[in-house]
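Hi V.,

Quick status before I head out on leave. The structure for the redesign project is tokenized and pasted below; the design run finished overnight.
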């Protein structure tokens, strides 16, 4: 879906439910009589859905934080970018899945991953860009192929450079080791 990057009104019409599904999120509850679809929040771990999308108005609301808005507000918050970059992401229509969501199997429920609150965003951190420069990695290639991955491990927030593996997960790289999520 290549959309006119400069047409804000056209981009605003991209259905939020479709965008979330493209990112790997599935509705936790189907559309109700008020035209709302409920999701588990993409911003935190939870067991009861507190994130609602009004299909008719194409707006979202996170009851856990009180935040909400248009598809632009959602993309800005998910990717931690400004409005111009959000328009670019939506305009390309080729956004990659940002979050690794393991399939819900019996084994995975019995053996949960130690990684939680996993979020991947475009590689924009000056720390990570300097890391790439020091290793003579072309910055255009790094920005295209790598992501900044933020995650919680053992109760502490961490960040790493990561790339998507062939199974839809990621392989973040820390200074010490590869971390498979």
């Amino acid at each position: 879906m290549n959309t006119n990057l400069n047409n804000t009104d056209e981009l605003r019409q991209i259905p939020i439910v479709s965008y979330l599904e493209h990112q790997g999120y599935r509705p936790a509850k189907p559309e109700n009589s008020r035209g709302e679809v409920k999701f588990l929040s993409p911003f935190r771990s939870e067991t009861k859905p507190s994130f609602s999308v009004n299909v008719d108005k194409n707006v979202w609301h996170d009851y856990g934080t009180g935040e909400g808005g248009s598809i632009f507000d959602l993309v800005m918050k998910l990717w931690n970018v400004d409005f111009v970059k959000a328009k670019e992401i939506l305009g390309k229509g080729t956004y990659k899945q940002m979050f690794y969501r393991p399939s819900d199997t019996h084994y995975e429920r019995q053996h949960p991953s130690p990684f939680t609150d996993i979020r991947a965003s475009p590689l924009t951190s000056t720390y990570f860009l300097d890391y790439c420069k020091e290793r003579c990695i072309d910055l255009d290639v790094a920005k295209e192929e790598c992501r900044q991955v933020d995650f919680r491990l053992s109760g502490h927030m961490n960040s790493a450079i990561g790339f998507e593996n062939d199974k839809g997960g990621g392989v973040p790289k820390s200074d010490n080791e590869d971390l498979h999520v």
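Above is the designed sequence. The longest helix spans residues 83-92.

G. will cover questions while I'm gone.

Best,
W.
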